[in-house]
Amino acid sequence: MTSDGPARRGDGLVENLLRRAALGDMVRRQAARQGDKPAIIARSGSGSRRVITYRDLDRLSNRVAHGLARLDVGRGDRVAVMSHNAPEAVGVYYGVLKQGSVFTSLNPSYTPAEVALQVDHSTPRVVIAGPGMAERARAGVAGTRDRPRLVVMDGTPEPGEIGFSEMLDGASGDMPEALVDENDLAMVMYTSGTESVPKGVMVTHRAMMISTTPSWSYERYVETTDVFLLLAPVYTMAGTGAVTNLISMGATLVMIPRTEPGAVLEAIEAEGVTNTSQTPTFYHRMIRHPDFGRRDLSSLRQAHVYGGPIPFGVVSELSRRAPGVTWATYWGQSELSQLGVIGFFKDPSDVPEGDSRWIGRPTPHVEVRVVDEGGVDCEVGELLCRSPGVMEGYYRNPRATDAVLRDGWLHTGDVVRLDPDGNLFFHDRLKDMIKTGGMNVSSAEVEETIRMHPGVMEAAVVGMPHPEWTEAVTAAVVAGPDASPSQVELIEFCRARLAGYKTPKRVEFVSDLPIDSQGKVRKRELREMLGNPGVRARQERT
């Protein structure tokens, strides 16, 4: 297509291109600005690397868009992708957006039954299986009602399937002539399902373009000069959102095959990584890795943390190895297009009130309220948000949508404290609050207390049914490699630091906690595990 080609069109494309705000266009614009700059650096387990420039990414995504058009994928059609972090997954994501279609993802760890359930719900026209995912995707698609077309990136396609290279064969690398509006859906991203069946969060181009990306930029949470080590999976909102914001900013993404502390430390040194994002548990494991004291981490500008309070001892250890690092706390939700609350600190003395539950202040595009059960503003209560980033709703689930989008606010389901300066402190998920003996107990507070014990590596707390207390505060603990605290010892440790009703009635030791791909504890599974001695015994023997 020549530069003046669309001007001869009479189908609205000219007017569409004149003012549209669409995520796919950001790749094209960055390719024009800095085509030779690495958009993605993909490292292999053997230490080799691939560099994909912005020009490469633009051309690949254009070819994907044209290839999808030949499969009759058009504006508004869903395309489901099952892939671990790989440059091809990013190329497909932007190709889907450029075609005016809707991106959705499938967790690579799903069973065939789970794949079939989500595919039947999202009704994609095409399912694309990333590297190593052909068999799992094939088994899942085989169990669906409508049997969408399957595209496989590797292996030999079976009858009725198509190879990814075949889909791209002969496809143009030029920009597709596709209509896209800022209010069109860009993605349907499924929640992690830690508490219930995953729900499909509908996010428009507009939500990211005028809300999430600008807020991250205003806060300097991401910058054009960043070399960002992507650890969040691209099949989650955290991963896709990070890709979207960093590519829109023109930064560089580094991808590694496994989220493992040794590989992370190696990548930081080898690629001059400026920032990355992970859970407190991961940072704790990273500072305990044998390579931690041997790798050069001086390039780190920011260490982003989400999913719980970061122990200040971990902060001090990483800051000692990376003196220029600033810690960035983050709270967000898929329902907010990943937007939310950000806070920065260099050392624990910068944290308001010295409270490790601090998650920062609302970003510029977010307004908040904290309300009690009656909807009255209060100091400690449920966090409500409104923003241009708020989702359109849950895909094909109006009842769940109405439950959280009420009275002009998104009801987040998170309990926080709001101080007079606008600082927010995370207390717990509403669903994780434990009702025991007529009192409310924050599972997060008890977890933080247990982790203070030197013999504890990880801990999670839930309420288990109890005939007298309604729910009993129950802890699952992963002991440190060189420690063996007893149940009595940990209960007494908590009793000395917590009110009696908050102290665990029971402590169970496990080899691992059930966590999802973002490092969050699957508390629904944990309750099942703690309520079934056979399941727990199998977990302990793993």
Question: What's the topology here?
Answer:
Blueprint: H1 13-19, H2 23-34, E1 38-43, E2 49-53, H3 54-70, E3 78-82, H4 87-98, E4 102-106, H5 112-122, E5 126-129, H6 134-142, E6 149-152, E7 162-163, H7 164-168, E8 185-190, E9 200-204, H8 205-218, E10 227-230, H9 237-249, E11 252-255, H10 261-271, E12 275-278, H11 280-287, E13 302-305, H12 312-321, E14 326-332, E15 340-345, E16 358-362, E17 367-371, E18 380-386, E19 393-394, H13 398-404, E20 405-406, E21 409-418, E22 424-429, E23 434-436, E24 439-441, H14 443-451, E25 456-466, E26 470-479, H15 487-495, E27 506-509, H16 523-531, H17 533-541
Parallel strand pairs: 1-11, 3-4, 3-5, 4-8, 5-6, 6-7, 10-11, 10-12, 12-13, 13-14, 26-27
Antiparallel strand pairs: 1-2, 8-9, 9-19, 14-15, 15-16, 16-22, 17-18, 18-21, 20-21, 21-22, 23-24, 25-26
Helix pairs in contact: 2-3, 2-4, 2-9, 3-4, 5-6, 8-9, 10-11, 16-17
Describe it for me?
The structure is a single chain. It contains 17 helices and 27 strands. α4 links the parallel β3 and β4 (102-106). The strands form 4 sheets. Strands 1, 2, 10, 11, 12, 13, 14, 15, 16, 17, 18, 20, 21 and 22 form a 14-stranded mixed beta sheet that branches. It has 542 residues and is α/β, with parallel strands linked by helices.
Ranges where pLDDT stays below 50 over 5 or more residues in a row are: 1-9, 534-542
Total strand count, please? 27
What would you call the structural class? alpha/beta
* Overall form: globular
- CA gyration radius, whole angstroms: 24 Å
Major beta sheet, specifics? 14 strands, mixed
Overall mean confidence score, pLDDT: 92
Strand content: 25-35%
How many alpha or pi helices?
A: 17
Ends distance: 58 Å
Share of helix, binned: 25-40%
